[in-house]
């Protein structure tokens, strides 16, 4: 597991993404006879991955160089941790109000990815988002939808 966790920071996005997906699957398993949440709670790699993710999205200039633009694999790990029956306590300190607000401020309709939407859905389901943050995310999604429709209609008119 430590190898997968370390390779999330690998510079090849394909390797990092595959490791992130594998790690998220393993973290989601309930292993018989193992206290899974205790293992995850004491796992410093998971916390470091989520902290780097939060920092790279909220304050990109402070994120480590190896992590810039490689947030997608880490999002899968964060989403899995947020979906656990017992979410690690440190997750709330990582995704606090200022972090979530910073992430929202750094997003625009043109840089919204599927993984970011998955992260916000997991944050919403785990009740990490406040009403004004939910409203801001909703406005961002509407702007993204409008941009996609505009781009599609321009493509169709160019073909005609």
TrEMBL record:
<dbReference type="GO" id="GO:0042138">
    <property type="term" value="P:meiotic DNA double-strand break formation"/>
</dbReference>
<protein>
    <submittedName>
        <fullName>Protein PRD1</fullName>
    </submittedName>
</protein>
<dbReference type="InterPro" id="IPR044968">
    <property type="entry name" value="PRD1"/>
</dbReference>
